[in-house]
Amino acid sequence: MARRRKVRRKIRVGIIGTGGIARAAHIPGYQKVPDCEVFACCDIVKQKAREVAKQFGIPHVFTDYRQMLEMDELDAVSVCTPNYLHKDPTIAALRAGKHVLVEKPLALNAKEGQAMVDAAKEAGKQLMCGLNNRFRAEAQALKRFIDNGLLGEAYYARAQALRRRGIPGWGVFIEKDKQGGGPLIDLGVHILDLTLYLMGYPQPIAASGQTYTKFGHRDDVLGLMGQWDPKKFTVEDFGCGFIRFDNGATVYLETSFAANLEADVFNTVILGDRGGCQLSPVKMFTEQNQTLLEMTPTSLRPVKTHEVEMSLFVEAIRNDTPVPIPAEEALQVTKILDAIYQSAEKGREVKIR
Ligand SMILES: NC(=O)c1ccc[n+]([C@@H]2O[C@H](COP(=O)([O-])OP(=O)(O)OC[C@H]3O[C@@H](n4cnc5c(N)ncnc54)[C@H](O)[C@@H]3O)[C@@H](O)[C@H]2O)c1
Asked: Which of 107, 111, 154, 231 has the CA that lies 20 to 30 A from 87?
């Protein structure tokens, strides 16, 4: 008897916002997933949407995402608009019966993020946040060791996402009302999520922090990521925070768009009572037989993290299994960042509920 081939349901995706991340990551990422089609795209700038549709062979083009969401054929959408436009398209898509992959950060603040999480629950649809750095080969290697007991009890981490001269010279990354903040929300969100993921996502209870603007207002600072308009600069260019968790663990977070440092850093160092680890360069530290050991993974295969992100999102939809980066975890990060910003304004520690 001939073996029947399993028929895989085709997943059709729509894209809201056809800017940098949609073109570089989401659209090509989905197009690599078997039996997945980018069926429609939308941008308020008609020309942009048309160009992208032509470049990637996307059959349907819109300038109003609400119209795109009326398409019954769409199973899911990617929300790739600037941060201040994550909430409304996400909620509209969920209410239209689509699963959503929203870019990081989840939202401008925790109030918006909570509304998005609630909308997903009400609609019975999945909401994932694009915190792709979790899929780095080194992060996944550390996760495997940590899940098998490398750290013992993880009680402290130092998370850093630091640029020496990396104020973005494009987009709206320097405008507080559209972005919600500077490096804390743009870069800190990645390294904080990755750190908490490795620590098993303990529950945050309080945070304190400080923000500084020492470079962004000036017109005599080197722009290695393009030249920005100092008059438009309304975010911090350095932000740090100290976070407490309900299990007694603490995390120190440092982020910058510009700082007088030797070099850029994207790293987390995690301390446990049985072992420790760091992301960049990836290493693990233990003691055995009264001997200090250092372990360095070798031959890790390089990973295209965005491709993994799109592929796992589509597979979760297809198989009706939980998405790998649930919005609830991204909401914890957003709550922490809110508390750090509030603490910087108030000059004291802020509780997280
Ligand atoms: N995960 C990552 O590595 C990563 C990298 C870069 C950006 N991002 C995130 O992706 C998001 C977008 O960033 P980007 O760099 O692509 O910005 P971008 O400015 O290049 O693109 C945003 C696009 O959204 C469009 N847009 C604005 N309002 C719209 C609306 N109402 N309807 C439809 N389209 C609309 C704009 O015209 C623009 O084309 C941000 O939230 C950012 O944080 C993530």
From this structure: 231
